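We modelled the chain as a single entity of 490 amino acids. Its sequence is:
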Amino acid sequence: MSDPGQPIVSLDGVERHFGAVRALVGVDLAVHADECLGIVGQNGAGKSTLMNILAGTLAAGRGSIVVGGSDIGAQYSVGAAHGSGIRCVFQELSLCPNLTVAENARIMHPALRGPGWRAKAGSLIRAKLDEIFPDNGIAAADIVGDLSIARRQMVEIARAFTVTDTPIRLVILDEPTSSLDAVVADQLLGFVRRFVGTGAACILISHLLGEVLSAADRIVVMRDGAVVEARRAADFTRDTLVSAMGSVAKDAGGGTADFRSKRDRSEPLIETRPDDRADGQGLTAHRGEIIGLAGLDGHGQTDMLMQIFAGAGLRRRGGARTRPMALVAGDRQTDGIFPLWSIARNIGIGSMRRLLRFALVDSSAEQTLAAAWRERIGILTPDMNNNILSLSGGNQQKALFARALGSDADIILMDDPMRGVDIGTKQEVYGMIRDEAAKGRTFLWYTTEMDELNHCDHVYVFRNGQIVADLPRDMLTEERVLHSSFGEAT
């Protein structure tokens, strides 16, 4: 990193309150050219609020914002941020699902106007997609709502890095790899290093500490709305980062604890049939098993979970047809939360049969359930009757876990569920999953995080919509998963 000189952007004493919640408390932050700045912290630490202020989508309650040497805090807005070359890729994607990829590019780049704007927008976004994510398979004419969440995230990232009339000076990446598999995530982080090498800057927010340690030049740690540490990345280790965050995590690497779920091998609880037209395998799950679904994103893992959830194309044994299932969605905005409901109601909907009294919801029982899970899983809110959207993305995901684990479902399906969840909560949830499996619950767990597969009894690897490998726990290695994903012999 070169001599920092004048920062691209600096914040001094920035505060932001949401009612009684102090989201930011006197934050000082500077970002320089040629720098990738990593920001880490637990859910609710204030990271996303800070990024929304930098992006101009939220106003600071107090403090100054200096961009390019000029204090423009009072006039700061999305337009001012764009005019200053500042872009943001939000954790909750901001694309319009009913528009094409090219049309979404036009929304961020009003300079694309006049005859032929759609073709120009398509050409620009396609070129940037190919530069960042080779072999991405996304067309400019694709409707965004038809894309997987990973491909939507790729489009949002490429749109932010696309240049039209204003040079880009700073790109904020808020959990950019949360829906990407390991191969695509590596492509992005490699591009980020090349990008900052041109004299620009990036802010990288991620709960994957290995990503931050490898990609960032400097790391800022936030806790309770304040900056508590700011040092060169080389001065941190994974353990010191976890300690600075105040995390309860004991195993920051994702967990490789030696355990075996108490599975019942007498009869499968779930058994899927492979496609008769292909060479794929079927999936079998017994009571008390934790089954991992792996492989490159978009190769059929989510489709398999949805088919099982709908009961299509499978044989469910042991009376499973009448047994309830629960789903923890990875795409929480589309498939998870009910945005008009309270946090308590979003949790309680999974246990509605238990909460009904004379065909009406027992509000007292619903509040008791919500309060118990608020304490158990650490949902950061002053009131569980607040709207679910008042929570940070990671805390919304905690509510989805509370809904599933608090229900009476014997089978729990998890579609890459750890998006935006802090490392301490991850470790607590891993423990809950193991405990529930030991009691006889069955888990089917699709994850793009290789370390999470270590919690599974065995792992099915997907390629081109088919199961191509079944790896028992004692044969599970990252190399075998990747080889199977790419169709190479192991």
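As a brief sanity check on the tokenised model: The chain has 16 helices and 21 strands. The two ends are 40 Å apart (CA to CA).
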